[in-house]
Amino acid sequence: MTNLDAVEGLDAVTRSLARRTPEQLAALLTRHAEPLARRPAPTELRGLAQALWSYETLHHLVLHLDHPRLQVLATTARISQDRAAQAAPGPAAPAPGADYQSLMAHRLSFAHLATEPVPPEDVYAALGAASPGPPRAAAETALQRLYDDGLAAPAGDGAIVVPPRVPQLLAAHDLGPFLADAPRPAPDDTAPTATVAPTSPHDESRAAAATLAATADRLLAALATQPAALRKSGGLAVREIKRLAKAAGATAPHTRLLLDLALAADLIALTRSPSGITALPTGAYDDWLGRPPGARLAPLLAAWSGLWDIPTHTPFGETPTALVRGHDRHAPALRHALLAALATVPLGAETPLPTLPLPDAPEQEAGTSTPWDDLLRAADWHRPLALRHQPMAHDRAAHILHEAAFLGLVAHGTLTPLGRVLLDDPRSLDEPLADLLPPLLEEAHFQADLTAVVPGRPAAALAGLLAAAADRESEGHAVTWRFTPQSVRRALDAGHRADTLLEDLTRASSTGTLPQPLCYLVQDAARSHGRMRVLPAACCIRSDDESLVEELAAHRALRDLQLRAIAPTVLVSSRPPAATLDALRAAGYAPALESDTGTTTVERLPAHRTKAPAPSRNPHAPLALAHRLLGLPAQPQEAATTGDA
């Protein structure tokens, strides 16, 4: 049957959207950008209303509702469905032995999708919030937030209209009694009665951020030096993870976490080549290297808040891997719930992190409650559908908290100042991170024992110079490099000259001078460098006809090959075999390709593939779309970027 009430519900939400300002509508589009991006972009407000109330979008959005909003939405939907069933009951069940057509007609009836507007007072009464007080205020606030998010709409008479699919989404969930306020995790009474921790959450966050910045820097540098090959089945092999973990100085789980964050932040990408799929840094990595330390961490932490995966958690029976696009839609909501619950823990409560893996924790007696249980109970209030009745929820939550501690968001059983900023707005991390991490150092202390010490984080230029001519020897609050004959020769091999290398090192010296032993080391290495030469040659051309060889060496059309005779019958070319063959054939010759065994090689045309560029992200796109949907002229700044919207 046709559901006219559902159509009237779309009319109500369309009118509600039309009453918004462009800024309010752009805020809604930004909040729901992820689920809406899975559908075609709307061209009118009614299309946006249909997208918001589609089953797929609702399935994503209800995961991010807290207990009051979820209760108001579920209660309204239940009352609405009951009233619709009474107003327009569905067809009676077919009699026993009915034919196939009768059974299908009953099966395809849509009475369960009918909706009726519900007066707010009926919803408040069903929730036990009919009288003024905290429950009533919480219910009213929750209803207004549902209106703001487009998950409900006010009808013309003030009644509430909700999407007809809500009962299908929420019918299986027992939300319990209406709770106006979130439960607060209780302090650990079994812990020693120490009052103040030896370090503050801010100090712990500073130390964690410094370690994280150095670890991410080394990890991406190792990936830039040697790209990682992915398995045919997807994801990095264990040996690749171990290699990168050793280069980064991190554990394997933390390496998997940073790799997935770098992939989500577009700092690395997966590239297909004839030999397989490899992971290597993108062009954004070069820009990332030029940023201050805090600005480097901001995209990684923001990516963690919305990551559809828990990289350090590996379900039983699966192999740990990385660089696999996650499919855990509950992870962002569970992450938010845990951080929101920790935000209410006062400093000094000392709620301990759960042990990993969680099943190895000591069994608690029946009827007892631990701070960990209280924390999960509080987190359940913030995002019920992400925690309640989800498989392995406790184990996944434990891994999330350990990831948060590694990232500097959690310390001493509560949120750090950085964690509170991430909870409020992941896009506002630059300022708190700049306060946590000191500026990069441009100078080093050069010592007579052939070491250079940087008492902090070195800038990219200084780190590159020292890495080119010395070996990194230690990490920590101060970074030490050691100069050796081999390291100086490495710099000379890379194109440095002794005089320019000494000039660059002198400019990087905090005293403006270099120790005499370092100068002698560079000069001695330069004197012995290059006494033996290795001739580069991409391929050789051989012919028994010496006159033909002389003709090729003098041919003007072949000058780009830079042909040189090393024997009367042999020429070396600076271009690879394919390019050399093409040039010879273009000049009118008929060469044949020969293998290293001396046999003629049969040539086949190669198949070349390239990766399509990723679409650019325009921060003004939501506001420009809001103006178009409302039928308003675009602002000048938006009009200039309409093509990217």
TrEMBL record:
Region listing for Disordered, in residue ranges: 180-202
Domain Helicase XPB/Ssl2 N-terminal: 447-567
Compositional bias ranges of the Low complexity kind: 180-200
Protein name, entry field: Helicase XPB/Ssl2 N-terminal domain-containing protein
Upper lineage: Bacteria, Bacillati, Actinomycetota, Actinomycetes, Kitasatosporales
